[in-house]
Amino acid sequence: MPHYGDLKIDESKGILFQLKRNTDNLINTVRNENNNTENIRRGLEEKKRIERTAKLENEVLISHKKNVEIDWNWQELEEKEDCKELADDIEIQVAACKKIIDDKDNLILEF
To answer: Model's pTM, two decimal places?
Structure first.
């Protein structure tokens, strides 16, 4: 027949084992929640990166198109002889150039 002390030791071991198992379960739960949160964060970061890349690629295409148009318009301005018309068209060109610069500045601020 086991002694009272041996029974208490076995009981204490059981309590410690249960406490360790509960703690391990809690640690695993926290670890899993952290992993899920990190996976979500990484997914969102990847989505943002893809969106930034798409915006930059789109900006390159639009900017190139606008630059070609502006270059073409400058060539047409060289042929103008009426000073008022030339001045008005130059103002339009300056506004178009400013718009391109503003769009790029906004893109820089966004990122």
So the answer is: 0.58
